[in-house]
Write a structure and sequence with these properties.
Blueprint (H helix, E strand, L loop, with lengths): L3 H19 L4 H17 L2 E3 L3 E2 L2 E2 L3 E3 L8 H12 L4 H8 L3 H22 L8
Helix pairs in contact: 1-2, 2-5
Bound molecules: zinc ion.
Length: 128
């Protein structure tokens, strides 16, 4: 079971997918599952930092695709890019540096969409 502690978010994400497929869960549960997996992928999942510096993308490990590595400058660089719109193209490059990080980023985005969808469910005549 070593390493599971780092990857627990994938289990939550799997439950979220099953929840959507079976629609056995209420929108409240979907929202909580979405929020938890989103937080995991953005702030906790093992990923690469990927902040672009003078020597190309940073290869340090980071916690979560939005957090950057232990270098404080890289953390700021990534957070700033989320806010500054003309940097989004660069941010995209930093969020998709390798398959693992790409998967975590894509899943994080899916979790966001799933959270929005669960909030909007009443408008489709479902839930709440
Ligand atoms: Zn870094």
């Amino acid at each position: 079971m070593k390493g599971f502690g780092k990857y627990w978010g994938w289990a939550v994400f799997a439950v979220l997918i099953v929840a959507w497929l079976t629609s056995d869960f209420g929108p409240g549960a979907l929202l909580v599952l979405s929020a938890v997996s989103m937080a995991y992928f953005f702030f906790n999942a093992p990923a690469w930092c990927g902040a672009v510096g003078r020597d190309g993308p940073c290869r340090n490990n980071s916690k979560g695709v939005l957090m950057g590595c232990h270098l404080r400058q890289h953390k700021w660089q990534k957070l700033k890019m989320v806010v500054i719109r003309h940097r989004w193209r660069q941010l995209a490059r930093e969020l998709f540096p390798n398959p693992t990080t790409t998967l975590a980023t894509a899943s994080g985005i899916l979790a966001v969409l799933s959270g929005i969808a669960s909030v909007l469910q009443p408008f489709w005549g479902k839930g709440w």
